Amino acid sequence: SQQGEEDPQALSIQEGENATMNCSYKTSINNLQWYRQNSGRGLVHLILIRSNEREKHSGRLRVTLDTSKKSSSLLITASRAADTASYFCATDRGDDKIIFGKGTRLHILP
Amino acid sequence: DAGVIQSPRHEVTEMGQEVTLRCKPISGHNSLFWYRQTMMRGLELLIYFNNNVPIDDSGMPEDRFSAKMPNASFSTLKIQPSEPRDSAVYFCASTTGNRALRNEQFFGPGTRLTVL
Fold first, then answer.
1. DSSP conformation class of B25
2. CB A100 within 8 A of CB A92
3. What is the pLDDT of residues A33-53, one digit of tens each?
4. In 10 A of CB B52, how many CB atoms?
5. Alpha carbon of B62: minimum distance to chain A alpha carbons (Å)
6. Per-residue model confidence as pLDDT tens digits over A48-99
């Protein structure tokens, strides 16, 4: 089964609203990364959070990590049409394995 | 910087044919990754190289798949013979620094492979 699993699988919200996506994983990790993929394109790195960090910000992005619950969340504030994409979490388990989830498809409605 | 370059962008071939995908990593990056993406299985790491040496090829599905990195600026992923179930988007990514899996990866645009 997947190490990182995003939830929900798909999300549609109105432009201007906040979007929250979650990632759960099974084993301990060194870090967790979030990536964005626009349709037909490669993945683009958004943010990396290490296992000893609880929260990080980057522009309109806010990532939290709860190692006790083995979960992370990605919050996009004041969403824009350009945020429409798939979002993936990737976990580094420390055994030199990196596992990507299947992603959350985010659609921003005008 | 041109970013990670992959070629071809699209490949359509017939079952049984050999397919070669190419990747040029970002200059100065010492780690290179090959991924496969399908709707059913998501994004899977096939193999990664560090300083041109294959570190982990446990994700390579079977012997029909092989990857090489003859120098720091070029890598190939070869499928021989190809099968319809190999149809997917294949991504190459690169990064720098030690413990490559812990660092931000830069992805290429991908090669969309269709095996008929």
1. P
2. no
3. 999 999 989 999 999 999 999
4. 16
5. 19
6. 999 999 999 999 999 999 999 999 999 999 999 999 999 999 988 766 677 8
